[in-house]
Amino acid sequence: MDSAPIVTLLSDFGSRDGYVGAMKGVILSLCRDAHIIDISHDLPACDVFAAALALQTAAASFPTATIHLAVVDPGVGGDRRPLLIEAAGATFVGPDNGLLSLAATAPRRIYHLDRPAYFADEISPTFHGRDVFAAIVGHLAAGLGCGQLATRCESMVDLEIPEPAVQAGVCMGEIIHVDRFGNLLSSLRREHLGGCDNSLLVEVAGRRIKGISLTYSEVAVGEMVALIGSSGHLEIAVNRGSAACELGIATSSDSRVPVSVSAAAL
Amino acid sequence: MDSAPIVTLLSDFGSRDGYVGAMKGVILSLCRDAHIIDISHDLPACDVFAAALALQTAAASFPTATIHLAVVDPGVGGDRRPLLIEAAGATFVGPDNGLLSLAATAPRRIYHLDRPAYFADEISPTFHGRDVFAAIVGHLAAGLGCGQLATRCESMVDLEIPEPAVQAGVCMGEIIHVDRFGNLLSSLRREHLGGCDNSLLVEVAGRRIKGISLTYSEVAVGEMVALIGSSGHLEIAVNRGSAACELGIATSSDSRVPVSVSAAAL
Amino acid sequence: MDSAPIVTLLSDFGSRDGYVGAMKGVILSLCRDAHIIDISHDLPACDVFAAALALQTAAASFPTATIHLAVVDPGVGGDRRPLLIEAAGATFVGPDNGLLSLAATAPRRIYHLDRPAYFADEISPTFHGRDVFAAIVGHLAAGLGCGQLATRCESMVDLEIPEPAVQAGVCMGEIIHVDRFGNLLSSLRREHLGGCDNSLLVEVAGRRIKGISLTYSEVAVGEMVALIGSSGHLEIAVNRGSAACELGIATSSDSRVPVSVSAAAL
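^ inputs. structure came back:
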């Protein structure tokens, strides 16, 4: 391919330090033409699940042969392995803590980054983003192969979006993400709900919403609406407002708010 | 032209989700060489006016043939039209809610994006940024013409910066924007003020500022200053501080704070 | 060199206005192929020291011939000079307020940007980032030489990381930066501490930490840890938490929190 290699970056490094810049510099030092594309760097600190979802959302749109570098790595320097994965026509580089697992779907080839010859000369135990991952990405962008940079391995940490439960005609899921608009993304997907129409009743945090709408603006400004969002998940939103604020919901992988969908009462 | 097409992105999608990345991926999937340039993605959610001003500020500096993609789109999925505009030597793509109107000044050619063949195969009613606008931008970057992608139309929603009123020698305007430094940008421009000098008195939120300065640092640290800002608007600022904090002003298109300029009292 | 010139951008302009975009547009108008790389734009407003540290952190990783544009410029329009510096294999452009001084280390050639022919036609006294610095960077990217764009000068404002004091076996420094994770970076570097091991006692804000660890995860989640961070400075952190929150520390160049390291008591 003649085009410059596309490299995406996602991290929780924020935008008030030099950490993101340091990773970019390392990549460009190894492949001056790398076409670096920022996904997001203000992911909540250390929230691997939120970052995995964001990577999944973004990576799905990129062309084949894109290299995705993702670093949300609270276990840096510990015993979590550094990984490289070939999957979905792309290459993913990051820590083995589940971060890559929603985007890098099976079938996939998993590699353990175990060859220090391709890392920085000196490796900070607290910044593998720069000294391990960005260095590997730079080598990939420069044309080195996965088999040269790393060793095949069998398994990796997989995050899972919790499977909905169905009981007595009620489909029960959880809020798995609050986006920047305060929209609440649930674990329920279109296929769980059967026909998405006005006969369904959504319940979350003591609030009932009747019917599944197509768009935010089907309800009045300030009103709550349930719809199937752009990633296929049932979403609760407020038209031009924040459902998260109105319902007092903040996400956390530890204690997720339940959401249920049932046939509407008469 | 041999150079890669320049594509700018502006949105209120923030930097903690995968939405911006998804748009970039779509563009690069259609034009791998697109030179993607971020303007801003942390525009206040759903604030079309603030985003229109930011786009105007930024777009003015770009070279001809730049493609500007802007998505602040609270009416997504409703009946607002998707637009493409040729104006000011550039191309603008986004919703018909006024967002493009301050940057894409007359003379301009307006097109309605009404040809789904150039959208994504499946269109989420809540994410036209990805499925409609980014797809169109990708095709533009790949060399397709406006006339091929869309249909000419006559009118679009235009935002307006409120015209100042002059009464009894007092020029009255409004605060139209608070920037990241807490500087207050007003609707008054240099040409409204006649000679900008020390004989003028600026009044805003009960505070009086004597004279129009050239720079922030003409007054002591922590003091308030009025000057003509970089976009030609009268601006109220605090040297190394925040005028917005000091005066307790937050902008909103709904209730704008008045500002007046008059000849200074003796 | 055939590759496009790499230009990095760092500022405190935030990501909700058009200011960063305006600078990018100016650069691309003068050099359409410039490979623009964002370092960070949400640096604390007007905090020159924090920005200088971030630039230092990032710039160290970039390849030779990179052009670094940095604008944190509270004195804009006043008598601080606009500078261009050749140092460390790179070129730095920005205000003479110390911002460039930590990254552009000696030996260096300093130039005063005193030739308006290379600035914008009209110069806003409040936005030299766009009208002076970005214009110069565009010309540099387009291949003009430093000697053509500016005039050699001898000195510049240098910031300094305060030197630690050693008294009675106690090494005393200061917290110089709080990063986005709430990690506290101190002025103490590895070389000040002699052997970094478990026999040392770190004290900050009334808290004592025994021993210098290698990684955050050497202590339990929520516990405080001292280690040598990725830039070589002694750092105080909380594993998966924020040391800044836990200790109630916010940085400020004016009143820095002391930190000391001594031999551990028996």
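DSSP finds five helices and 15 strands in chain B. The interface with chain A takes residues 12-26, 28-29, 32-33, 36, 38, 45-46, 74-78, 124-127, 130-131, 134 of chain B (CB under 8 Å).
thumbs up if we can close this ticket
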